[in-house]
Amino acid sequence: MDEKKVGIIGLGKYLPENRLTNKDLEKIVDTTDDWIMGRTGIKERRIARDDEATSDMAVHAAKMALKSAKLKPEDIDLIIVATITPDMFFPSTACIVQNKLGINRTPAFDVSVACSGFIYAIAIASQFIKSGIYKHVLVMAAEKMSSVTDWKDRSTCVLMGDGAGAAILGEVKDGGILSIHLGADGSKGDLLKMPAGGSRLPASISTVEARMHFLKMQGNELFRHAVKIMAEAALKATEPLGLKADDISLIIPHQANIRILNAVAKRMGIDPAKKVYLNIEKYGNMSAASSAVALCEAVEEGRVKKGDTILLDAFGAGLTWGAIVIKW
Ligand code: UT7
């Protein structure tokens, strides 16, 4: 019997209305629009309302994905949310989303893989469909990074944004996911982390006073790893298929820094202006949501057409990384 082909059959996104520009940030911390644009490629980012949590953004994106797949919530067999900014520790954000979608028997769980979360979640979802266990899996990547951002730390607060993307996976006749490469290196976990709030350092007055409930990053060191690892991951996903850089129509990467993406493209020998999808200017780094929203917008804008071979490529805290080749 032929193996099932699994593909993305619906996409959605949600970006909060509130825009925070570099000019706005100039009033909050000692920074400039020139520094932020020059070092990162970010012009503005979206910030969720106080009453808007990660699950709210995920639900908006999910509803759009359901519509685009012409499916109803009842058609979904499994719900996965990729997030490092869940509504709360438990219940999982996936269970909260499930309840909001009104499908209260559907299995649901979160994956905590930081910026690579969308790739990991797609990888997990695809196995359930390939094996015939489920027909349709709803994957969301949703982050309220503003809730873990230290607005007094200029080295990180200029980078992050909020948003959500969603994809529905199902069986397809042609193409679909051709290869998956995932990786992790826990020895470098200190490079990007939120130190307190877990079982190691539960919330206390001293952890709050020490600002330990915000993300901490060693940007420079992380930058070096990001370039190397994203280029390697791309190779690991494409090489087994015999694909060369020229065979990829578009790379849709995690949007951490335009300089990282240009350097990755250079290593791969491709023209970043033509073959790397970018929306970092509008949204900043939305962790797991970045590549999900980027895929949705690339398709909306006609940058991905039927028959195209695209590459999703992400890297983040953990460290974690992942790359997926999809024939659209
Ligand atoms: O999402 C996946 C994980 N994230 C990443 O992969 C991010 C990787 N890292 C980066 O994107 C970059 O390292 C940053 C954008 C975070 C920083 O860029 P950089 O070129 O590595 O700058 P730097 O950290 O080496 O800082 C250079 C200078 C420093 O001043 P001195 O020490 O040279 O006087 C910083 O204090 O820039 C200063 N600086 C700023 N100046 C103005 C740091 N942040 C700012 C700022 N505005 N917002």
Order of helices and strands: EEHHEHEHEHEHEEEHEHEHHHHEE
Helix amount: 25-40%
Query: Largest sheet, if any?
Result: 5 strands, mixed
- Structurally, how many domains make up the residues? 2
Question: What percentage of the residues does DSSP assign to strands (E)?
Answer: 15-25%
User: How would the global form be characterised?
Assistant: globular
Number of strands: 13
**CATH H level of the largest domain: which superfamily?**
Thiolase/Chalcone synthase
Q: How far is the N terminus from the C terminus? A: 23 Å
Order of adjacent strands in the largest pleated sheet: 1-7-6-4-5
CATH architecture of the largest domain: 3-Layer(aba) Sandwich
Summed up, the helix count is 12
The chain-level structural class is alpha/beta
**What is the level 1 CATH name of the largest domain?**
Alpha Beta
Using the coordinates shown, work out and report the CATH topology of the largest domain.
Peroxisomal Thiolase, Chain A, domain 1
Task: Point out poorly predicted stretches.
Answer: none
Bound molecules: oxa(dethia)-CoA
Structure report:
The chain has helices at residues 22-26, 33-40, 54-69, 93-101, 117-130, 154-157, 205-209, 219-238, 258-268, 272-275, 280-283, 288-300; strands at residues 6-14, 19-21, 44-46, 78-82, 108-111, 137-144, 162-171, 176-184, 192-193, 216-217, 250-253, 309-316, 320-327. The protein is of the alpha/beta class and 328 residues long. Helix 3 (54-69) packs across helix 4 (93-101) and helix 8 (219-238) packs parallel to helix 9. It is globular and about 60 Å long. It binds oxa(dethia)-CoA. Oxa(dethia)-CoA binds next to helix 2, helix 6, helix 8 and strand 12. Residues 31, 35-36, 39-40, 115, 154-155, 158, 192, 219-220, 222-223, 226, 256-257, 260, 285, 315-316 line the site of oxa(dethia)-CoA (UT7).
